[in-house]
Amino acid sequence: MAGDPKIAILGIHLESNRFAPPVLRPDFAEKFLAYDDELLTDSRGTHPRACGTLTGFVREMDRLGPWIPAPLVYADGGAAGPIDHDFFLELKEEMRTRLIAAMPVDGVYFPEHGAAVSTAHPDPDGELYEMAREIVGPDVPIVSVLDLHAIVSEKMVETTDVLVSYRTNPHVDQVERGAECAHVMHELIGGVKPEVAFIRLPIVAPQVKQLTADGLYAEAIQYGQTQIDDTVMNVSILGGFTYGDTPFNGMSFVVTTRGNKARAQSLCRELAERVWQGRERLLPELTPLDDCIAMAVERGVDPSLEQIIIADVADNPGGGGRGNTSWLLKGLYKAEAKDAILGVFFDAPLAAEAHGKGEGATFMARFNRSETDQYSESFEAVVQVLNLSNGQIVGRDPGSRAGMAIDLGPTAVLRLGTVKVVVISIRQQCIDPGYFEAFGVDVETARTVVVKSRGHFRAGFSVYFRPDQVIECDAPGLTSPNLSNFHWTGFKRPIYPLDMNTGWTPPDW
Ligand SMILES: [Zn+2]
């Protein structure tokens, strides 16, 4: 290679819940859809909109020396439904023509999520990698970062050189992993030949059992990191995203070495065997809805009890949930649980109505007047408007969102009886205490806090709550960890724990 390396950057960042409504161009545009130089301007700016995997890569490449970025297309849809297939083909074509125009390149970087499905295809991420491989040929490195929840297909492994997944959940290492990919890219351009081993276990672990602070999954990731040395370049263990419901679902182990196939295979197999043997530790333990309400009521009357945070894990917008199921809200309101706060409830028409009425106004609110999802039941209560805002805040989560610009859309704090709820207009999970505090709702003194989130809130809220103060609620919803609640059609069966007697034989390498 002569001169500074030219690196193409493109990708889709989407985690698809197959049961949620499809997403189209406006959904991506609302989150972050950028072309050409806008990608770079954003990554190098003070408050980037793109995921840390893109900014981490760009900034580290900048630091490592002169390079020629070829930013093409980046589409961030966050966590939502399947991408509309026609729109996917449109995006893919935009990427294809731009990559061809950028040729020749010395490397390709994908700041990918890896758990996208389209309305007609189970593996759009693999399709994009394959398209890039066909254009750049076998010798140009393709490096991709992946979310820890990525669903890894054989095609994804075969058409790329190195896959690097997050190692933390809640995800607080996105910037770091993007930077790691920059180093990997430099090594590959310098002539290092990676050897990769891949195993997918037939396990769809409930999302609540894929945390990385402790537990079986955490131990596997931590052990993998102790094996990094001059030979082992990267160990990625991906829990997968159950609600994608594809034939490629499972827990994936991807081990990359510098030119040593045997070492990659032996380590990969060892890691998979450890998890397989301990798989019973992946079964969820949820608290029934009624017990959650009772705990909140007790805390409202007995100050000697410690405050709790209840995670509405079944309605996690970070996993494609609508962020508007009302079982917990209704339950707390009816039981008159004192000093209970709930956030963030996605209901744009209701937020708009509150803005029309003004702060201090009282009116009969109808939650979910226009939603059609089966879990988004509507419900009515007299509310008082406590606070109104445009919903533009800056993240305080010490992990992934610190300093990031967050847009919740027009926001209203409503009081119904003893409960305060933060109503937002742009659907997302409640990831840090700023989602309450920016609107005058005090988290520290609340007796019960309910968050629409599965696990990502744990980083930001750890300033107030220890892990033993977190209650995972078993309410209905699109992201329930209770896997028997869903009608699965995509998985290869048998798969654990849906089929408890699933078998697995290690590869004969
Ligand atoms: Zn994730």
Distance between the termini: 35 Å
User: What portion of residues is helical?
Assistant: 25-40%
> Which superfamily, in CATH terms, is the homologous superfamily of the largest domain?
Glycerate kinase, domain 1
- Under the CATH scheme, the architecture of the largest domain is 3-Layer(aba) Sandwich
Q: How many β-strands, per DSSP?
A: 20
**Residues in β-strands, percent:** 15-25%
Number of helices: 14
Q: Given the helix and strand composition, which structural class is it?
A: alpha/beta
Per-chain topology:
Layout: E1 6-16, H1 25-31, E2 32-35, H2 37-43, H3 52-64, E3 68-80, H4 85-102, E4 107-111, H5 124-136, E5 142-146, H6 154-158, E6 162-165, H7 174-189, E7 194-201, H8 216-226, E8 232-238, E9 251-258, H9 261-277, E10 287-288, H10 289-301, E11 308-311, H11 327-334, E12 340-346, H12 348-357, E13 362-367, E14 379-389, E15 392-394, E16 405-407, E17 411-416, E18 419-424, H13 434-437, E19 448-451, H14 457-461, E20 470-474
Parallel strand pairs: 1-3, 1-4, 4-5, 5-6, 10-20, 11-19, 11-20, 12-18, 12-19
Antiparallel strand pairs: 2-3, 7-9, 8-9, 13-14, 14-17, 15-16, 17-18
Helix pairs in contact: 3-7, 4-5, 8-9, 10-11
Residues 147-149, 171 line the site of zinc ion.
Structure commentary:
- This protein is α/β, with parallel strands linked by helices.
- The protein has 3 domains: 1-192, Glycerate kinase, domain 1 (Rossmann fold, 3-Layer(aba) Sandwich); 194-284 and 486-509; 289-480, no CATH class.
- It is built from 14 helices and 20 strands.
- The protein has helices at residues 25-31, 37-43, 52-64, 85-102, 124-136, 154-158, 174-189, 216-226, 261-277, 289-301, 327-334, 348-357, 434-437, 457-461, and strands at 6-16, 32-35, 68-80, 107-111, 142-146, 162-165, 194-201, 232-238, 251-258, 287-288, 308-311, 340-346, 362-367, 379-389, 392-394, 405-407, 411-416, 419-424, 448-451, 470-474.
- It has a 9-stranded mixed β-sheet with strand order 10-20-11-19-12-18-17-14-13. It has a 6-stranded mixed β-sheet with strand order 2-3-1-4-5-6, sandwiched between helices. The chain has a 3-stranded antiparallel β-sheet with strand order 7-9-8.
- Strand 4 (107-111), helix 5 (124-136) and strand 5 form a beta-alpha-beta unit.
- Helix 4 (85-102) runs parallel beside helix 5 (124-136) and helix 8 (216-226) runs antiparallel to helix 9 (261-277).
- The two termini are 35 Å apart.
- The mean pLDDT is 95.
- Bound molecules: zinc ion (ZN).
